[in-house]
Specification:
Elements (H helix, E strand, L loop, with lengths): L3 E2 L16 H10 L43 H6 L13 H5 L8 E6 L5 E4 H7 L3 E8 L4 E11 L1 H7 L7 E6 L19 E5 H5 L4 E6 L2 E2 L9 E3 L12 E7 L6 H5 L23 E4 L5 E3 L7 H4 L13
Parallel strand pairs: 2-11, 5-12
Antiparallel strand pairs: 1-13, 2-3, 4-5, 5-8, 6-7, 6-11, 8-9, 8-10, 12-13
């Protein structure tokens, strides 16, 4: 059973936005196309959600739970409270700013150190790979979390078909770069496009998921449509959205957050309550839709499945 803690009367600012990015955020908000009245104050829990234009899925009853028995987060929360800086630093503004984002046509280029490089359309992916529901916890470094019923399949299915060479050690991912549709890309502080990476054995693990839907419906742009990666034992920023390129390489790839703040965001970024962020604890989290804080779990609760990947490593140093 999870240990519950009383929620503070007011969330710490450090749980909402990294302090090192505060000045950049202020600059973004001043230059954003949004008016002041359209920018709600950020909150780490209990957002005042905008009703979804998509009908609420009929199969989204309270009987859905994850492996630890925790109920899934509501569809409205999942689709209207999103970290997606390419659209906005305001989690509640992303849904509105992204609702006209073009997701069709779409293609993903897969290459690098592989025997069979290829380019797949989103239709190819949906037709070729059998989708299944995977209920995973998503834990953000900022101190909030959700339980999400993703639709997808293991990334390893794609990687096996392109056949990594013996030199391949890492997998690099890249998000689409489309400034005309993604206003957050006008923020010059970040090294766009968004990039992420995994070690090859992490990418090949069956929990690492290519997601194309949520709650039995196609992904909305706010959730990373039309295709994203979900790595449930890592902090949420590792689960890169709207992917257009996957490259296998022999070198550890640069990632956006590790580039911006290497002392705060490591390459591995496994959920580790024992390793605090430089400015706040990671021991507890706030589940969206709940009024109490709860204890965080090592590897986000997936240690039994993935801890063997890190045998012999000091994850306090290689964070």
């Amino acid at each position: 059973m999870n240990t519950l803690h009383k929620q503070p009367n007011k969330p710490k600012s450090s749980e909402i936005t990294p302090e090192s990015l505060y000045i950049s955020r202020r600059r973004f908000l001043k230059t954003s196309i949004l008016t002041a009245s359209s920018i709600p104050i950020l909150a780490a829990c209990g957002p005042s959600l905008i009703p979804s234009e998509t009908p609420f899925p009929t199969n989204s009853g309270p009987e859905k739970t994850d492996e630890m028995g925790d109920p899934v987060t509501s569809y409205d929360a999942i689709t209207h409270y999103n970290n997606y800086y390419e659209f906005s630093v305001d989690k509640q503004a992303v849904a509105g700013l992204s609702n006209k984002f073009t997701v069709d046509p779409w293609s993903v280029e897969i290459g690098g150190l592989v025997i069979n490089p290829t380019t797949l359309s989103i239709d190819d992916i949906r037709k070729t790979y059998t989708q299944e529901e995977r209920i995973y916890r998503l834990r953000c470094v900022e101190g909030w979390s959700m339980v999400i019923p993703w639709d997808g399949f293991s990334l390893s299915e794609i990687l096996k078909k392109v056949e990594p060479t013996t030199d391949a050690k890492y997998v690099a991912f890249e998000t689409v770069y489309r400034p005309t549709e993604m206003p957050g890309l006008n923020e010059p502080f970040y090294p766009w496009p968004y990039t992420e990476g995994l070690r090859l054995d992490e990418a090949m693990h069956p929990l690492t998921t290519v997601a194309t839907g949520v709650y039995g419906l196609p992904l909305l742009p706010a959730n990373g449509a039309p295709i994203r990666i979900v790595v449930p034992w890592k902090y949420g920023f590792k689960s890169i959205k709207s992917i257009v390129k996957i490259t296998l390489t022999d070198k550890q790839p640069a990632t956006l957050w590790n580039t911006v703040g290497p002392d705060e965001y490591g390459f591995y970024s496994n959920v580790n309550p024992s390793r605090s962020h430089p400015r706040w604890s990671q021991e507890t989290e706030r589940r969206i839709g709940e009024g109490m804080r709860r204890a965080s779990h090592y590897m986000n609760g997936y240690a039994k499945q993935v801890a063997s990947l890190y045998e012999g490593m000091d994850l306090m140093k290689e964070y």
